[in-house]
Amino acid sequence: MKTAERLRGVLETIDRRSYGAYKQIAGSYDFADFTLHIDYVQGDPFASPSRLRALFAARVAQLPEELLFPEIRRTATADFLNRQLARELGPISRPRGSGKSGMVRILKPGQQILERTSLQIDLQGQIVVRFTAGLPASGRRVLGGQAIEMLLKAVPSALRRVLAPATRDLERLRRHVRLAEDSAALRRQLSDRGLVAFIPDGAILPRRSGVDDRPLAASEAVRFQAPEGLRLTLNAPNRGAVVGMGIPQGVTLIVGGGYHGKSTLLRAIEKGIYDHIEGDGREFAVTVPGAVKIRAEDGRSIASVDISNFITDLPRAEDTAHFTTANASGSTSQAAAIAEALEVGATSLLIDEDTSATNFMIRDARMQALVDEADEPITPYIDRARQLHAELRVSTVLVVGGAGDYFDVADTVIGMRRYLPADLTAGAKEIAARQRSERAHEGGPWSPLQQRVPDPASIDPQKGRKSVSIKLQTPTRVLFGTHELELSALEQIVEEAQVRAITQAMVHATGRWLDGRRTVREALVGLVEEIRREGLDSIDSRQAGDYAQFRIYELAAALGRLRTLRVQAPERSESR
Ligand code: ADP
Ligand code: MG
Fold it and tell me: What is the band of 575 on the pLDDT scale with cuts at 50, 70, 90?
């Protein structure tokens, strides 16, 4: 390994030379307390920035053992250090010449505590940081002095401020770790307690805006308060008793007047699959890991999905057990989203009327009288919700403000009034008994879903001379090879780094797991288990620092939205 002084020497030597001279600095350097690895050097100041890594050995980092085990603590510790580092590197990143000169970037965590490849801690306590830097240039000439200031002064001192034991904020780090551990522990208790989700008293659920995931100012927000009847206590290992509202398994409705906080509650439930940072307002608001948001998304493509439990006998006699379209309707897209989620093992479905197709959710008595059932391809969700729970043990949490017919199929009814929940189950049941719904039940038995085997040749990230080209056009839209992949309907994705990881995982899986023989479920379960075993790095050999953990549901949903995807039936049939 070369010394840091040697790096300085080279940068002095290549000052003012043409940019290509930077290629010489690739390699590893000893900075005494850490090592700096320049893994990839950009070709010019406007190209993707150079990729760097810093390694702090365990004996230098001196992370207390209790922050490393079990795994959740290690993940939370890494998340915390990543956050601190993103904050410290912010001011260091500044223009130092042309193009991307002087930019220093590390993944910036949002409100959720996640595993990311930008900062990893191994079992021994070694810390690896991955970040990018724009090597300074004037025009296309090396600015050696700027590079020395950046790589030998600014970056090392920021790294040391966060990672060296002397300056580390150990008290806050411990709190962060305890919070993550408590949150994960509460989530694990849900199933045993017969719950889908839990929202603690005092939580702040509304967000600052539709594009700002931080909490609404405490002065403007009404804090959550569990209603009598749904109030219960869970136990967190560090914090102890946490009181709040439990949402039971089965079919739960969230009702109430417009603008009274229904969707906000559902959104908090959607995000309860993640642990949130201190001050987020959703700390300890937890949801079972298999809860999947389902929404309509007309225009999406669908590749041979079995939507026959919801839709049969379309006018052009399409086969709805293997439904394929390049342009789905609201109802077919929503049916496909459910089938795709169930295919990979979803245990709860979260649905909001705001983002649903009305005809998918309900067909009322008058409409049944006017339009003969034989002429209506759709079996509405209201006629499947109970069955999903009774036969498949799949719960539903549904926001519904307009369709009281749903009282007939509900186990629990939560009423939102001025942002506060009430238990309206008894009232709703009483009304349902008194005012009988005239509508007739539709739909027959639930038929097991047809299994699908993706054709790996149809998953093609190639573009021009590049065998793999994945570009984010927006935080939720990817140019995958030459095709656009729109993921904005996957509302439980919280970071761009998840989108990168999901699309890269699809590439990694193609040929390996998506091998033309395994079903969607077999392939994606295999892939997710590989990642759990070997870490997120297993999806990419380049030691990239811009991936974050993701679930099998978002992975399956992304795969299903690839417009090129083709699938066939498996040789042996298997079903859920
Ligand atoms: P609904 O789905 O019932 O129509 P929303 O959940 O969309 O209502 O909420 C309406 C508005 O009220 C939103 O702007 C939301 O941010 C705000 N809001 C929701 N819950 C709270 C709360 N607990 N305190 C303050 N404002 C809230
Ligand atoms: Mg709403």
Answer: very low
